[in-house]
Amino acid sequence: MSTVTFVALALAGALTGPPAPPAAARWSWPVGGGARPAVAAPFDAPEEQWGAGHRGIDLSTARGGPVTAVADGVVTHRGRIAGRGTVSVTHADGVRSTYEPVDAAVSMGDRVARGQRIGTIGPESGHCAPAACLHLGARRGPTYLDPMTFFGARRVILLPVP
Hints:
InterPro entries: Cell_wall_metabolism_enzyme (IPR050570), Dup_hybrid_motif (IPR011055), M23ase_b-sheet_dom (IPR016047). The protein contains 1 helix and 13 strands.
């Protein structure tokens, strides 16, 4: 039986040189008034497009609280999915951010700016019931993306050490 040792990729940089600076945040937090809210549930990519997973992050907040656009874009969806109010904004880089549950204050085709109020946290039970949270998704084409990367977070990847 062999043993494989793993090291975090972020630490592996010490073997080849100084670590890279933190990634720049491209998005602003959609809840919490600009401060980083608690992440109630992280992104968990499905192995297959149709498979189980968590296709976004859940951010702790309060029912009725404001929801703002993470970046400039155009509202490309406003409606209800699975009984919850949803809003999607498509950004210039082709990434679509989706927010739920949201009582929308915007309409399809509206241009929104980073930090602009797009609605409020809806009364529907969401992923965090009985607590309230905002589910924030990110997608480019058919591919779900980890929204945390747009806030400047780096994903730690474990690699085998020879």
